[in-house]
């Protein structure tokens, strides 16, 4: 009995302590779990955007000085560009080189001169004739021979294109007789502004007897004001002994004083311009005036072939003489009775 009583008291006392402990634990608030500081900062930064950077304080003085500096640099650059442009336009390369000899304090002027020289050489290759001597030297025994320069298109022939047949080239009436006869007296040169790929095959078909000594194409012309001009000064011949025959002579050469204009030809089969010109050209070759340019100037405004025939008729009326029959007699007659100022006498010829 006593042992059971002691056991029951111990159990009742333990049960009371257990209830007291459970009541104390429920009365206290629950504790939060521990979290690292870096996790809290990251969570805070993800939820709230970062504050904007502080605005830089504007300094009025610095802003004005920077604007003035830009304006000064722009003005200086514009002035230098204008000065270089004016010098390039107003002075040649040699003139600038001469004027700037005492101002070679930096490499800027030398760089400008080198750059301009390089550019001018490149441009010259497209605008100037391919050589200063387009023809070889004349043989010493032919120094007295005149040079007859002939244009090609609308002068000796005419090229026409149509869709149904393509390109066709027509020979001017009398061109064969013209070339064959005058080749006895002249050095004949064809000078065209067409490309060589056109000039060469056309001349080969036109001149099957070899009357034309030389042919010059677009590479031998001078490009100026949007046009290709024949520069007769580059032919390596005495300009006093050059005649340039063309359907557009006055507007296609830089030396109009050597021009012999004829009507441009466009497939008129009744045209006689080349044949009409033979007497005049033969007379020039036979009598060799010291300078052909004043002779051509006396025919300015006239059709030279027809005007020459009219003057010859008037001269025959003023000085009636018997005309020899053979070419040798005509040549001897001319040297004996006619002077250079009697230019205009026409001797018959066989074409």
Characterization of the model:
Strand 2 (157-162) and strand 3 form a beta hairpin. Residues 34-42 and 333-351 have low confidence and may be disordered. Helices cover 47% and strands 11% of the residues. It is elongated. Among the domains are: 89-127; 140-342, 3-Layer(aba) Sandwich (Rossmann fold), CATH 3.40.50. The protein has helices at 2-27, 37-47, 60-90, 93-99, 107-127, 175-182, 196-206, 249-252, 273-287, 292-297, 304-318, 327-337; strands at 146-150, 157-162, 166-171, 186-191, 214-216, 222-224, 227-229, 242-246, 259-261. The protein starts with a helix and ends in a 14-residue tail after the last helix. Helix 6 (175-182) runs parallel beside helix 9 and helix 9 crosses helix 11. The chain is α/β, with parallel strands linked by helices. The relative contact order is 0.08. The strands form three sheets. The chain has a five-stranded parallel β-sheet with strand order 5-4-1-8-9. It contains twelve helices and nine strands.
């Amino acid at each position: 009995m006593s042992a059971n009583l002691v056991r029951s008291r111990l159990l009742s006392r333990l049960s009371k302590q257990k209830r007291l402990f459970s009541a104390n634990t429920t009365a206290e608030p629950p504790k939060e779990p521990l979290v690292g500081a870096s996790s809290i900062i990251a969570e805070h930064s993800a939820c709230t955007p970062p504050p904007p950077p502080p605005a830089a304080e504007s300094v009025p003085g610095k802003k004005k000085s920077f604007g003035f500096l830009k304006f000064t640099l722009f003005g200086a650059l514009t002035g230098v560009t204008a000065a270089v442009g004016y010098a390039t336009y107003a002075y040649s390369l040699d003139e600038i080189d001469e004027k700037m000899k005492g101002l070679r304090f930096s490499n800027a002027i030398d760089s400008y001169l080198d750059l301009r020289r390089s550019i001018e050489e490149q441009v010259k290759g497209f605008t100037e004739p391919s050589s200063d001597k387009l023809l070889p030297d004349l043989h010493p025994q032919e120094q007295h021979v005149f040079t007859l320069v002939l244009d090609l298109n609308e002068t000796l022939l005419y090229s026409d294109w149509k869709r149904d047949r393509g390109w066709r080239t027509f020979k001017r009436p009398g061109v064969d007789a013209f070339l064959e006869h005058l080749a006895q007296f002249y050095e004949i040169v064809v000078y065209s502004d067409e490309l060589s790929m056109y000039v060469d095959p056309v001349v080969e078909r036109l001149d099957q007897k070899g009357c034309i000594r030389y042919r010059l194409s677009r590479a031998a012309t001078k490009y100026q004001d949007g046009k290709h001009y024949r520069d007769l000064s580059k032919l390596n011949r005495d300009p006093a002994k050059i005649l340039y025959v063309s359907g557009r002579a006055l507007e296609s050469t830089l030396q109009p004083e050597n021009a012999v204009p004829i009507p441009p030809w466009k497939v008129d089969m009744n045209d006689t311009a080349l044949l009409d010109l033979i007497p005049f050209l033969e007379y020039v070759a036979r009598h060799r005036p010291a300078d052909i340019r004043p002779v051509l100037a006396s025919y300015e405004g006239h059709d030279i072939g027809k005007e020459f025939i009219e003057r010859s008729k008037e001269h025959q009326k003023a000085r009636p003489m018997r005309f020899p029959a053979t070419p040798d007699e005509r040549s001897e007659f001319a040297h004996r009775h006619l002077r250079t100022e009697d230019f205009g006498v026409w001797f018959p010829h066989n074409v």
